[in-house]
Every structure is written in structure tokens, then in C-alpha cells.
Specification:
Number of helices: 14
Number of domains: 1
Structural class: alpha+beta
Strand order of the largest sheet: 1-2-7-4
Strand content: 5-15%
Bound molecules: cobalamin, iron/sulfur cluster
Order of helices and strands: HEHHHEEHEHEEEHEEHEHEHHHHH
Largest sheet: 4 strands, antiparallel
Helix content: 25-40%
């Protein structure tokens, strides 16, 4: 086991600006049975990739043969300061005039795409190691590889997994972090995991979840607003209607509720990475409902936000509008609904939902 090289790598990761970093052994998960049970009982919905490459997901040595270590990193993307919620009944500006409801974007997706921000710093580190240690394997992963990123990060000492199933980072950064890894055949010294359960008797994330998607350490992914608004491409299940609060793309409600994720003075030692500074935090729903492919393109949305196609944006917007009071709808919003309701060639669900909402407006 190379202790000097381990220390050098950890210091390089700090220099690259990662908020948290550490190393764990590339060993098989101890939660194989739970994962299989989850797939069978909870189900992955349209995220069919979760049911593929199971062997690789359970064991990093199946993913990268000869793997011995995993170098784990986390970027902090916000300090989690509380922000205004745009509920239907508070959609009046300061002078009392009616304004269109707005929809929020989850904070991880407001700035540059984290896949690129992390990969662009891990690849040069992996390249340097490839040059110096020929014959070894180095595989950079950010989100999309079939590995259990939170579990490895926990074992590498970056934090502990909470009941909401997310990693709660050390150094008081909470869960406002995104993860990346280098899976390697190098034999590096593992970091110490953090001991203890971070949650105790707390249930705040479970209580705050608008769709009751959380059981302790078990997420009902198909009930999660993040899944619905970003991953689910078809019509939403009926019970989702009126439940998405003001979430237009992703959802942060469970993280916002967590005591570990409140802004803390002690977290100022690791400032959020400026690459994640918000370019789009929320959108006027009347605008979203009126977007054409061209007008959406002119918004210059980040790569993260471009993941949802136009009909998904409109579907997500209609679900928020459905939870607002029709008496507060602006003319612009009503006109946008009328346009969608009469779009014979357009998406059937969007047309029918808009027509249903307009009936509320006319009192029919
Ligand atoms: C699929 C996926 C989703 C799905 C499902 C989420 C989920 N919790 O599984 C959806 C679309 C809903 C989603 C939503 C979000 N996601 Co996501 N997602 C993923 C992805 C690609 C795979 C996760 C996975 O394998 N899920 C399948 C289930 C079965 O896995 P699991 O929960 O790990 O289940 C295991 C454990 O629960 C364990 N277990 C059981 N009991 C116990 C008990 C204890 C004590 C422990 C420790 C473990 C444990 O057993 C199971 C089998 O291993 C990962 C990236 C990756 N490759 O890991 C990102 C990832 C988890 N997502 C991330 C983010 C940021 C989010 C959102 C916050 C985005 C947003 N704001 O909208 C939300 C959060 C929702 C939530 N509360 O989890 C980050 C999380 C960072 C962090 N701080 O932990 C990740 C790691 C991406 C990244 N590279 O940063 N996501
Ligand atoms: S992201 Fe939102 S919907 Fe999903 S589990 Fe957390 S609070 Fe619930
Ligand atoms: S809100 Fe409470 S229960 Fe949920 S993850 Fe945070 S500490 Fe754990």
C-alpha cells in the first residue's frame, strides 16, 4: 500500500478545489440484498439503466477488473441559504398585483453541469497517474457509471448517508454536494469512515417530502419529484397532480428540511464552487407554457436543464399551476393555457390538462 502516493493524491484533490475527498477500498457492497429487493419491490420506473449491469453496480471489481481503490470527491454547489417559495396563493407582488406563479429549479442544476465541472478536474489527475503508473487502470466516474457513489463516498470518509438516502457531507456542508470518483487498480491507503448514524430520531426530510417518497434509507423513486420532473418522459400518474409544490426541475425539499444542510458558519471553510453559480433559479410558468423550441433554445439553458424536453417542461409547469388558486392567474397565464388547450397537433396530455385547468377558471 503506497502511503506517500496516497498523501500526494489527497493533496492534489485539495488543490483542485474539491470540498471533500477521500479513498476507500474497491470492495463489493454490503447492501446487495437491499438493492435487489428495491428493484423488485419499489422499481426503477423509466430509469431502466438501474436494472442493468447489476454485477458491476454491486462490485467495482466487476466494473473495472483489477480495481483496488476508489478515489472519491465531492463538490459543494450552494450554501443552502433559505429562499422564497412561490406558492399559488402568494403570487402577488408587493403592490398586490397578480403575477404568474413561478417554478423553481433544484439548486444542483442552476449553474454549470456538474458532470463536466467534476470530470474536467478528475481527468487531468487520472491522466497524470496513467503516465506515471503505466499498466494500471483509472476510470473517472460522475453519476452515470454503474457504481454506488454514495456508499463509496461514505466508506471514504466524505460523510454519512441520511434517511433521505443522500450523503450528508462532513465539514458542515450538508447534502448540498455532488460526487465523483476515480476507480483505480492502484493500492492506496483508505481514509477513515465517519462513525455513527447522522439522523437519530429525526424525521424532518420524511415529513417535508411533498409526495411521501421517503422511508428511512429507502427512496420510492417513482414518487420522487426529481424523478418525475427530470427522468419520467411520459404522462404523470394521477396522484402526482397538485403535489409538486413549486418544483419545475428537480426538488430540494428533503435537503432543505435537513438540520445538517442548514447554512452554518463552520462551513465557510469550504466555499461553494463558483462554477455552480446560478444562471437560472426559477421561471415564470406562463413563459414556460408559451415556449416554442426556438424560444427555449434562446434561453441558453445549461446542459443540465436541457435534459428535460420541451413537453416535459410544460408538463412540469402545468402540475405546479394545478396546485395554485385560479383566482390568482394572470391574463398571460390564462392565454398560455388557452393556446395549449387548442393545440390540436400537440401533446395530448398537455392539451387535456390545460383544458381541465381552464374549466376551473370559468367555474364550469
Ligand atoms: C438514480 C438516481 C436518482 C433517482 C433515485 C434516487 C435514489 N435515492 O436512489 C432520482 C431521480 C429520484 C434521483 C434524485 C435525486 N438525486 Co440522484 N442519483 C441517482 C444515481 C444515478 C443512482 C442512485 C441509485 O443507484 N439508486 C438506486 C437505489 C436502490 O440505491 P440506494 O438508495 O443507494 O439504495 C441502497 C442504499 O439505500 C442501501 N441501504 C439500505 N439501507 C441502508 C442503510 C444505511 C445506513 C445505508 C448507509 C445504506 C442503506 O441499500 C441500497 C442498495 O445499495 C446516483 C449516482 C450514482 N451512480 O450513484 C445519483 C445521485 C444519488 N443523485 C444525486 C442528487 C444530487 C439527487 C437529487 C438531490 C437531485 C435533485 N435535487 O433533484 C435528488 C435527491 C432525491 C433523494 N432523496 O434521493 C447525487 C447525490 C449526492 C449526495 N449528496 O448524496 C448522486 C450521487 C449523483 C452525484 N454524482 O452526485 N437520483
Ligand atoms: S427530492 Fe423532493 S420528492 Fe424527492 S424525496 Fe426529496 S423531498 Fe421527496
Ligand atoms: S432530515 Fe433528519 S432524518 Fe432526514 S437525513 Fe436529515 S438528519 Fe436524517
Amino acid at each position: 500500500m503506497d502511503h506517500a502516493l496516497t498523501a500526494e493524491i489527497l493533496s492534489t484533490l485539495e488543490g483542485a478545489g474539491f470540498a471533500l475527498y477521500g479513498i476507500c477500498r474497491a470492495t463489493e457492497t454490503s447492501h446487495r440484498a437491499k438493492f435487489t429487493q428495491w428493484l423488485e419491490q419499489v422499481g426503477c420506473g423509466e430509469m431502466t439503466y438501474l436494472a442493468e449491469h447489476i454485477q458491476q453496480r454491486m462490485d467495482p471489481c466487476e466494473f473495472v477488473p483489477t480495481a483496488r481503490s476508489i478515489i472519491c470527491v465531492a463538490d459543494r454547489y450552494t450554501d443552502g441559504a433559505p429562499e422564497q417559495i412561490h406558492g399559488g396563493n402568494v403570487d402577488r407582488n408587493i403592490s398586490g398585483a397578480i403575477v404568474s406563479p413561478r417554478g423553481r429549479v433544484a439548486r444542483y442544476a442552476r449553474g454549470r453541469d456538474y458532470h463536466s465541472v467534476i470530470r474536467d478536474r478528475l481527468e487531468p489527475i487520472a491522466d497524470d497517474l496513467r503516465r506515471r503508473f503505466p499498466g494500471n487502470r483509472f476510470r473517472v466516474c460522475v453519476d452515470t457509471a454503474p457504481i454506488l457513489e454514495r456508499e463509496h463516498a461514505q466508506r471514504a470518509g466524505l460523510g454519512r448517508i441520511g434517511k433521505h438516502t443522500l450523503l450528508i457531507g462532513e465539514k458542515s456542508v450538508g447534502s448540498w454536494i455532488v460526487l465523483g470518483e476515480i476507480v483505480t487498480s492502484l493500492d492506496l491507503a483508505p481514509s477513515n469512515p465517519v462513525a455513527g448514524d447522522p439522523c437519530g430520531t429525526c424525521t424532518r426530510c420524511i415529513d417535508a417530502c411533498p409526495t411521501q417518497a421517503i422511508e428511512p434509507w429507502k427512496l420510492h423513486a417513482q414518487r420522487c419529484i426529481s424523478y418525475l420532473t427530470i427522468e419520467h418522459r411520459s404522462a404523470p400518474a394521477e396522484w402526482f397532480h397538485n403535489r409538486t409544490d413549486d418544483w419545475l426541475f428537480g426538488c430540494d425539499a428533503c435537503v432543505e428540511a435537513c438540520p445538517h444542510s442548514q447554512p452554518r458558519e463552520s462551513a465557510t471553510r469550504v466555499q461553494p464552487n463558483p462554477a455552480y453559480q446560478a444562471s437560472h433559479s426559477d421561471f415564470d410558468l406562463a413563459d414556460v407554457l408559451s415556449w416554442s423550441e426556438q424560444s427555449r433554445a434562446s434561453m441558453k439553458l445549461s446542459k443540465a436543464l436541457r435534459r428535460a424536453k420541451l413537453s416535459m417542461w410544460k408538463r412540469n409547469a402545468l402540475l405546479i399551476v394545478a396546485g395554485t388558486n385560479a383566482a390568482t392567474w394572470s391574463d398571460q397565464l390564462v392565454n398560455a393555457l388557452k393556446q395549449l388547450a387548442s393545440d390540436e397537433g400537440g401533446d395530448v396530455w398537455l392539451r387535456e390538462k390545460s383544458a381541465e385547468l381552464l374549466r376551473r377558471c370559468s367555474g364550469a
